[in-house]
């Protein structure tokens, strides 16, 4: 029995996707999905740039999960998957200027404008709890 590489990759990354979608975070899988959601998202929107790297698993996704337990959270929750949904990720990154592409990363937007951004280098050397504290402070500041 042979398995295509594409099917193998889909099976391997599905649990990484599920970690976020089980939290109520909607996947944006195409540039059209991004364009339909981000520019017109009234209020606040969290955008998680997911990835297969260890710092996404060990710190970013768990940090987001902890932060979403805060009393104050964004109005909208989205994710794109770097390296998998490449065009959607590229389109989402257009909204994160002046920051260079970074995955994983976490953006908080308010009425379509970037108000807080956590880059990979701010994820890989911090614990999930530290990332959650950073996010909850941003939620408290921008999501009320």
Quick description:
InterPro entries: BrxB/BrxA (IPR009474). Belongs to the bacilliredoxin family. With 144 residues, the protein is of the alpha/beta class.
What tags apply to this protein structure?
single chain, 144 residues, alpha/beta, Glutaredoxin, five-stranded mixed β-sheet, 5 helices, globular
Report what the structure shows.
- The protein has helices at residues 5-21, 31-37, 54-67, 86-93, 128-142, and strands spanning 26-27, 44-50, 76-81, 105-110, 113-118.
- The protein has one domain: Glutaredoxin.
- The chain contains five helices and five strands.
- A five-stranded mixed β-sheet has the order 1-3-2-4-5, sandwiched between helices.
- It has 144 residues and is α/β, with parallel strands linked by helices.
- β2, α3 (54-67) and β3 (76-81) form a beta-alpha-beta unit.
- It is globular, with a radius of gyration of 15 Å.
- This is BrxA/BrxB family bacilliredoxin.
- It comes from Cohnella pontilimi.
- InterPro entries: BrxB/BrxA.
- Belongs to the bacilliredoxin family.
- Pfam families: Disulph_isomer.
């Amino acid at each position: 029995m042979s398995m295509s590489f594409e099917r193998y990759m889909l099976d391997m990354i599905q649990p990484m996707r599920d970690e976020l979608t089980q939290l109520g975070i909607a996947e944006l899988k195409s540039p059209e999905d991004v364009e339909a959601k981000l520019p017109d998202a009234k209020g606040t929107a969290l955008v998680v740039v997911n990835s297969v790297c260890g710092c996404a698993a060990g710190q970013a996704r768990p940090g987001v999960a902890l932060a979403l337990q805060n009393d104050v959270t964004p109005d909208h929750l989205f994710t794109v998957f770097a390296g998998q949904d490449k065009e959607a990720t590229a389109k989402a990154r257009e909204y994160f200027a002046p920051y260079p592409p970074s995955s994983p990363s976490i953006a908080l937007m308010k009425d379509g404008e970037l108000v807080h951004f956590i880059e990979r280098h701010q994820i890989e050397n911090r614990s999930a709890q530290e990332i959650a504290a950073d996010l909850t402070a941003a939620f408290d500041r921008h999501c009320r």
